[in-house]
Amino acid sequence: MAQSLISSLTPFKGGNENFDFFIKQFIEIAKIEKWGEAKKILVLKLNLKDEALKFLVSNPKLEELDHFDSLVKKLEEKFCKKPNFEEAQRQFNNLKQKVSQSISDLAEQVSSTTDKFSNPNNSD
Fold first, then answer.
1. Domain total for the chain?
2. Burial 12-46 (b: 16+ CB within 10 A, else e)
3. How far apart are CA 62 and CA 74, in angstroms?
4. In the prediction, which pLDDT does 1 show?
5. Do 73 and 89 have their domain in common?
6. Could you give the CA distance from residue 22 to residue 49 in angstroms, rounded to a whole number?
7. Of 73, 25, 19, 21, whose CA–CA distance to 49 is shortest?
8. Are 55 and 30 contained in the same domain?
9. 28-61 residue pLDDT tens
10. Taxonomically, which superkingdom (predicted)?
């Protein structure tokens, strides 16, 4: 049997690591290798370490989840930083056109700031 691509994926530890990046790679591997629901759940759990693993084992209800998307959602709630309203308001209040900045550059800056707060997970 060929070696799984999952062996090249660095386990997710929590803390300051980027969960979105980890889970996107994980899902791509699962699609390529045509994993079923049970295998995705098991392999995801096996690829949690440190803070992420502690979160899993300290929440018995997470251990019982039998839907991959539900488990991912709980991990996202814990490990994905969502921008708050005050931060969004501060960043928009600080948006000003600089002397040498074109209108189109300012529009791009406003657009990227809007995207960051309206779609914090940058989902496709």
1. 2
2. bbbeebebeebbebbeebbeeeebeeeebbebbbe
3. 8
4. 43
5. no
6. 13
7. 19
8. yes
9. 999 999 999 999 999 999 999 999 999 999 988 8
10. Eukaryota
Q: Which domain holds residue 52?
A: 5-79
The confidence band for 24, taking pLDDT boundaries of 50, 70 and 90, is: very high
119 — pLDDT class (breaks 50, 70, 90): low
HSE (side-chain half, CA atoms, 13 Å) at 45 = 19
> What's the pTM?
0.63
Task: Say which amino acid occupies 33.
Answer: E
Q: Tokens 């899902």, residue?
A: 27
- In whole angstroms, give the CA distance from residue 19 to residue 65: 19
Output DSSP code: residue 80.
Answer: S
DSSP per position, 15-37: TTS-HHHHHHHHHHHHHHTT--H
Q: Is 58 left (phi over 0), alpha (psi -120 to 50) or beta?
A: alpha
Looking at residue 37, what is its pLDDT?
Answer: 93
Burial class (CB in 10 A: 0-12, 13-18, 19+), 113: middle
